[in-house]
Design goal:
Distance between the termini: 39 Å
Number of domains: 2
Organism: Parageobacillus thermoglucosidasius
Radius of gyration: 18 Å
Order of helices and strands: EEHEHEHEHEEEEEEEEE
Enzyme class: transferase
Largest sheet: 10 strands, mixed
CATH topology of the largest domain: Rossmann fold
Number of helices: 4
EC number: 2.7.6.2
CATH superfamily of the largest domain: Thiamin pyrophosphokinase, catalytic domain
Keywords: ATP-binding, Kinase, Nucleotide-binding, Transferase
Protein name: Thiamine diphosphokinase
Length: about 220
Amino acid sequence: MFIHIVGGGPKDHLPSLSCYDGEHVRWIGVDRGTKTLLEAGIRPMRAFGDFDSLTAEEIASLQKTLDHLDIWPAEKDKTDMEIALDWAVQQEAEKIRIFGATGGRLDHLFGNVQLLIKYAEKPIEMIDKQNIVTIHLPGTHTVSYDERYRYVSYLPVSDDITGMTLEGFKYPLTNCHIFRGSTLCISNELIQASGTFSFSKGILMMIRSSDAGTI
């Protein structure tokens, strides 16, 4: 089972959600993301949030349409996305993908990245039209070439990363020590069908992007 969560981020940051649909996919709406799913022709199995971004009429429509609409108070100690992700993690899915979590407000973006770190040991991806973000713990990890996401960047989440090694990349590394704040591992590329990245200590963020952009 795969759980796909859709938040209320700007629609122009979303990939085609239908491309991620399938028999074993369970969709979850978060606040306005619930409406986004229905507009895409996808019926979520559950929805979470205070729904303060919707009108009373829109909320009433959701209540008639969905079997499980969990409405929370606006004043609470967790974001709507955290509530939904906490529930999703308890379902022990093979993978969790989060959409609609980027663009718009930066506080929500960085908060959603923090949620990935919170569940660093879980197979979670945060996806938008241009990027895939994942969090990794120490060990050796394989990454396959994908023309859609040519550029691969690594950012330390913890204070530092020890033993960072990149093999199969345009810019390889061997047993490198990287501190938080470093841009050393920004915008790398695979030069073969697959490569590996490994490190012995720390927490690492990997971002795969569809074009080089400008810095």
